[in-house]
C-alpha cells in the first residue's frame, strides 16, 4: 500500500472524544432520569434498561448501514456527519423537557455512535496490512483514555447540575467535528468505492460477508464469544458490592485502574507483541490472559486480589486488534466499511445478550432459595467462553506477511497531516461503556 497523507490523529481523537462524551454522561444520566420520574427508583431502573437496550439495538441496525455508506461515499463525510449529529444530540438531551425527549436522544446517540466501525475502516484504508493490528491497538488506547477521563469529568461537572455534563459532551463532539471539517482528508479513493446495496446494509444480510471465507467466519465466531465474555463487566460493581462490600469510591478507583491498564496495554504493547509473535499467536495469547484473569477475579477472596485481576484481564486487549487485523486481510479495500459494520453488528448482539446472561447467572447463583450458591459463576462462564475462543484461534491461518514484517513495533505506516504527529481497549472497552 502506498503511503499517503492521512489524519490518523483525527481518528484517534474522534474515538477518544466519542468515548469521553459517552463516559461523561454515564454518571449523570441516572440522575436526570430520576428527576423526570419524581425519584422513583424502580421506574428509573426500568427506563435505564430500556435506554441500554435501545442504544444496542440502534448500533445493531445502523452499524452495517453506516459501514456500507462509507464504502459508497467515503469515510470522511460519514465521520463528520456522525460527530456533528452526536454533538447536536447531546444538546437535545441537555434541554430535554421530558423523558420522551431523552429517549429520542438515546436513539440518536445509538445511531451516531455506530460510526465507530467507519473509523476502523479508515485505519484499514491508510495502513498496510501487516501493520493494521498495531494501528488498531493505537485506536484501542483511545477507548481506554476516553473511558478513564469521561466518568471522572462527568461526575465533576454534573455533580450540581446533570444537564451541564451534556453541554460539555456536546462541546467535545462539535469541536471534533470542526477539527475534522478543516483538516481531515478522505481515505478511500473514488475508484475503490462500492455501490450501495440494501442487502449489504441489512444487519442480517451484512453477516453474509463474514461467511465468505472459512477463516473469516471462524474469526467472527471467536470475536462474538469474546464480545459476550466482555459483558461480564455488567456485574463488576454489583459483584464487588456483594462480595467485598465496596462503596462508590472503591468502585470508581477500580474503574480508573481498568481505564489506565486498557490505554497502556492497547497503545503501548499491541504493536510490539504483534511484530514479535504475529497476529495469530497474539490473538490466542491475549485470550488466554483474559480467561486466566477471569478465573483470578472469580477466585478472589479479597478486594485487593479482585483489583489485581484487572492488569491480567487487560492483557486480553492485545487480541482484539489482532483479530480485526486478520479479518481485514480477507476482504477487498472496497469492503472494509461493510466488514467493520458487520463486526459492529456482532458487537451489538453481544451487548444485548451478554448483560442479561451474566446478570441472570449472578442472580441465580446468589439466590438463597437455591441450595447451591456460587457468586463467581459468571466469571467462570466468561473464562470458559474465552478458553473456547482461544482453542478456536489456534486453528486459523497466520497471515504470511505478519511473520516477515520488519516494521518498527506499534508504528503504523501512515503520514499524519502537516504539523501533526501520529500518536498513540476494559478489558476491551467498546463504543458503549456498560461497566
Task: Supply database-style keywords.
435 residues, mainly alpha, disordered N terminus, disordered C terminus, 19 helices, 0% strand, single chain, Growth Hormone, Chain: A, globular
Structure report:
The protein is 71% helix and 0% strand. It is mainly α and 435 residues long. It has one domain: Up-down Bundle (Growth Hormone, Chain: A). Helix 7 packs antiparallel against helix 8 and helix 7 packs antiparallel against helix 12.
Number of helices: 19
CATH superfamily: MFS general substrate transporter like domains
Q: What is the N-to-C succession of helices and strands?
A: HHHHHHHHHHHHHHHHHHH
Identify the overall geometry. Answer: globular
At CATH level 3, the topology is Growth Hormone, Chain: A
- End-to-end Cα distance, whole Å, is 38 Å
Radius of gyration: 21 Å
Question: CATH class, please?
Answer: Mainly Alpha
- State the CATH architecture: Up-down Bundle
Please mark out the parts with pLDDT under 50 across 5 or more consecutive residues, or reply none. Answer: 1-6, 401-435
> Could you say which structural class the secondary elements and strand pairing correspond to?
mainly alpha
What's the number of extended β-strand segments?
0
Largest sheet: none
How many domains, in number, for the residues? Answer: 1
User: Proportion of β residues?
Assistant: under 5%
Percent range of helical residues: over 70%
Tell me which oligomeric state these chains represent: single chain
